[in-house]
Amino acid sequence: ILNVEQSPQSLHVQEGDSTNFTCSFPSSNFYALHWYRWETAKSPEALFVMTLNGDEKKKGRISATLNTKEGYSYLYIKGSQPEDSATYLCAFMDGGSQGNLIFGKGTKLSVKP
Amino acid sequence: DGGITQSPKYLFRKEGQNVTLSCEQNLNHDAMYWYRQDPGQGLRLIYYSQIVNDFQKGDIAEGYSVSREKKESFPLTVTSAQKNPTAFYLCASSTERLWRDEQFFGPGTRLTVL
């Protein structure tokens, strides 16, 4: 059974702090890794889709890295703002899954002003 | 505005009744998906469809059924055979069948069985 682990489960930071989360996934037969942000009362929205080992992607103050050989991805938020408060989901897809995304349980970030 | 709509937002059902959740998209996406969220768990795939008139079971399809008669619509029926249907249901879509494409999500339907 494929398993995707996210840590920490929750995180409380002050406005202006930088933070990072981890997503761990099986290192064999990698196909893609997705990151989503899910704000309360809204729909999840995609942040990044990463497909190559060593990928680094950036969107504003948020960036992500990917290591498929060791099976992890980091999501970084620089200078957290209250509007960054959300649950961050990662989802893994392996080559044999025929499109089945396996989601982690998420990291819930709270940013205090 | 393009997007995905789900209705209703909240749904209450008596035990033994079938209920259908609506999902519509105007993004011209080929692929559509249904996920279920339970407290403390990640999203789990119920069914997905890559093209009209075709759909595949996900990890937890038992007790559910779907149809894909139109590209825009992918309704999910929760049948009385689903033993624990109370959950939050999310519909999503993506551009193609390549599977690496990001998925776009609807706002969800919270189903409660009374």
Mean pLDDT of chain A: 94
What fraction, in percent, of the residue positions of chain A are helical? Answer: under 10%
Give me the oligomer status. heterodimer
Shape of chain A: globular
Shape designation of chain B: globular
Q: Distance between termini of chain A?
A: 41 Å
What ranges of chain A have pLDDT less than 50 throughout 5 or more consecutive residues?
none
Strand content of chain B: over 45%
Over the alpha carbons, how many angstroms does the gyration radius of chain B reach? 13 Å
Structural class computed from helices and strand pairing of chain A: mainly beta
What percent of the residues of chain B sit in helical stretches (DSSP H or I)? under 10%
Which sequence of SSEs, written as H and E, runs from N to C of chain A?
A: EEEEEEEEEEE
| Order of SSEs of chain B | EEEEEEEEEEE
Q: Low-confidence segments of chain B, ≥5 residues, pLDDT <50?
A: none
Question: Number of DSSP strands of chain B?
Answer: 11
Largest sheet of chain B: 7 strands, mixed
Output the keywords.
heterodimer, A: 113 residues, mainly beta, 6-stranded mixed beta sheet, 5-stranded antiparallel beta sheet, 0% helix, B: 114 residues, 7-stranded mixed beta sheet, 4-stranded antiparallel beta sheet, globular
